[in-house]
Specification:
The chain is of the alpha+beta class. Among the domains are: 121 residues, Up-down Bundle (Four Helix Bundle (Hemerythrin (Met), subunit A)); 196 residues, Cyclophilin-like (Cyclophilin), CATH 2.40.100.10. The protein is built from eleven helices and 16 strands. Helix 4 packs antiparallel against helix 5 and helix 5 runs antiparallel to helix 8. This is Peptidyl-prolyl cis-trans isomerase CYP37, chloroplastic isoform C. Pfam families: CYP38_PsbQ-like, Pro_isomerase.
Amino acid sequence: MAFPLSSSSFHLTVARNRITCFSKKHQRHVIAKVTVCNCNTTTTRATPARSVVEKIVKRLRSVVVVPIVLASFPISAFVAPLVDYVTSPGVAEAVLYSPDTKVPRTGEVALRRAIPANANMKAIQDTLEDIFYLLRIPQRKPYGTMEGNVKKALKIAVDEKDSILASIPAELKEKGSLVHASLIEGKGGLQTLLQSIKEQDADKVSVSLTSTLDTVAELELLQAPGLSFLLPEQYAQQYPRSVTPTESLSITTLMLSGRGTVEFTIEKGDGSTFSPVGGEQKNTATVQVVIDGYSAPLTAGNFAKLVMDGAYNGAKLNCINQAVISDNGVDKNTGYSVPLEIMPSGQFEPLYKTTLSVQDGELPVLPLSVYGALAMAHSEASEEYSSPYQFFFYLYDKRSAGLGGISFDEGQFSVFGYTTTGRDILPQIKTGDVIRSAKLIEGQDRLVLPKES
């Protein structure tokens, strides 16, 4: 691979990976585009973060785009000069320069934060999650502060019991009461966590904290049986099915009003084997993903319908830099034209056909910067739409991320779920491996199917 470095003053300072769909006439489905710019980094004076971002944006107006079939180099190599450039950024206004962005680094955490539960449960969740940051403090841990956090959460759980249970549908009330009791007194509850903190065993506290937050998430899911917002009228009523340019078939909403679980069985295409941790080597492996209709109802709904229709059975996988992406679809007559759908953090409904500006502090509820994130590729026709069928697993690598450990493509794709089982399988997938089967094993009752007219 060669770059046109015609001048000794040419410096690589910015790199972006793009996952984009191409039609078959291009003889390739996906490329990674590396954007580079000519930049002089001799100055060392302190510069406010916002002005730095503005300068970078101006420089990017005249970029050189170099397409490559397979990007195998670390993006961090391109970012190093940029890091030097902003060594002393002054007041950090952009989220990329803040060490306290608290972007979730696992799918489980991201999914838990995305549940639209009531304010009391979110207060309990936030209070407990702060303990994870306290556990990172080296040497002497602030166990007193941790104990105070748990007692605060315990008080909310006890004092606001009626309010917490009131938001659970009548048919789930009994189960909700049992989970609430478990949150307080159960093995994976607050009292057990409190005892672990008193013993001042950091490892034990971490295990108990994870168990308690799992119980919190279970109760929150009972509080959120459906969407907490109304879809925009143009998407809630009808939109065209993407089959042929001349077709005018109208449909009502296709969406997932909650959570679903999809199980992939992936087979080695070259006859080799996977090496699952603690298991025997086989030529097939299982990967499970949780898809989230709370934050991406249209995208998750379209994907769930494709899975139920068997659209991905037999689909080949391709490996590019930091992603495992499906081919262009076994049957292009399936799938719907879904607008780019991103729920910004702190908002109550998704944005459509709009990307987020990470430099200005915008982050999605379901971030791409998580290993095993599940997202749709862009449409061949427009980046305002997701591909009707082509998805990818994102293999996040903080060594190839921007400042603050955030992916360069954060806020640019419709992320709609995360890998929860089989993350160790993802890096073993190679180009040519095949999705032997994809099944919706949970969430069929939450899938709202379209009615053709």
